[in-house]
Amino acid sequence: MPPLEFFRLQTRQEVLALYERFPAVGAEQIELAAACGRITAAAITAPEAVPGFLRATMDGYAVRAQDTFGASVGAPQYLEVKGEVPMGAAPERGAGPGETLRVATGAMLPDGTDAVVMLEYTAEHPDGTLEVRRAVAPGENVLAPGEDVAPGEVILPAGRRLRPQEIGLLAALGLTAVMVYRKPRVAVLSSGDEIVPLEGRPRPGQVRDSNAYLAAAQVAEWGGLPRMDGIVPDDFAALRAALAAAMDAADLILVSGGSSVGVRDLTLTAIQDLPGAEILVHGVALRPGKPTIMASLGPTPPKPLMGLPGHPASAAVVMEVLGRPLLTQLCGLTDPASWGRTVTARLSRNLAGATGREDYVRVRLRREDEVIWADPVLGPSGLLSPLVKSDGLVMIPLGVEGLFRGEEVAVQLFQWS
Predict the structure, then answer these.
(1) pLDDT per residue over 215-254, tens digit each?
(2) 240 CB contacts (<8 Å, ≥6 apart)?
């Protein structure tokens, strides 16, 4: 069979635009305690107000604000202390004109009061008289009912990643469970006669299956459930059977290796033999990562397949640049700013770009005085140690000849947040 030629190289933006055809995976309801990091599958509406009562935000005295008007150190106002509001309970009495009750932070204000005078601006005398040395305005040092969250308010949209602060808000509303998208199941296959298991001893010309473990770790860090489907030899029937099994069991298939000349042809042929298969991408204008494959499998809803380059650095970069946003799409995350994290740094040396391709350079970050520098970590795409020494990637845009020393660059970090 003659070798299959590369299609026109597609840009990163063209590849990302294809992801709209792949919907988020199904939803599930889970306990709130296990929901941190998950993605909301439906908008969440507040069932009640937070706070549910007029609440003190400072230790002090609950007052009618108008009773303090004009108070100062030189001309204090005097009020009659009528007791104390117990924590965690409703006040036992209200306060009339010229009266006040002691309150702690978080306590409910008694009827008739609308503000709290902070403790440090008062002096309580033995006869039960309170000397107020500073005036307060209505609503000062208190939270009104519903000031944090109003009942019926949409507090979280669908597609929002739940951070600790969102978990806290949901807990304050008494929500014990939340509907989230389930974690995408990702099948990771390695193809090639030169690949051996980790416990094996490579013979000359063979390497251990490091790419699959690297990709699986990335999937797990970004919110997916990796499934190691093992090593498939360079055999059409075996590869086709492995892909068909993965298609039935997973939401996304990653094929590590199988993108070199010859083996790439075999991989493409096996993919095209699957039900409903469509090759979407056969070469991307990236360096490293040109021989990337992407396909759509099966009927509605379709499932994506991504064929990763065989070199470790190339595979890792493709996963960062194209795999992470694809997994983000399947996770249901709608805010593009919520995945990944970048920092601004200055480039420590000149870098030449790749003609006709978007170039990704590994960099290590260091701080010198008040400046963060990005030091390029160079090395062939077959090496893993430069990845280990790197903190992230700097992109040289398509059509740009290079970047200069001292130029500000955005570093996409190798971490979720």
Answers:
(1) 999 999 999 999 999 999 989 999 999 999 999 999 999 9
(2) 270, 273, 274
Q: What tokens does 336 get?
A: 């593009």
Q: Phi/psi of residue 369, each to 5°? A: 55, -120
pLDDT at 338: 53
10 Å Cβ neighbour count for 274? 19
Mapped onto helix, strand or coil, the DSSP state of residue 368 is strand
**Alpha helices per DSSP H over 173-296:** 210-221, 236-249, 263-272
Q: Which helix (H) or strand (E) holds 327?
A: helix 324-331
Of 198 and 294, the one with more pLDDT: 294
In the numeric block, which tokens belong to residue 296?
A: 């759509």
- The residue written with tokens 């996963």 in the block is 319
Tokens representing residue 125 in the block? 């005398």
What's 151-209 look like in SS3? CCCEEECCCCECCHHHHHHHHHCCCCEEEEECCCEEEEEEECCCEECCCCCCCCCCEEC
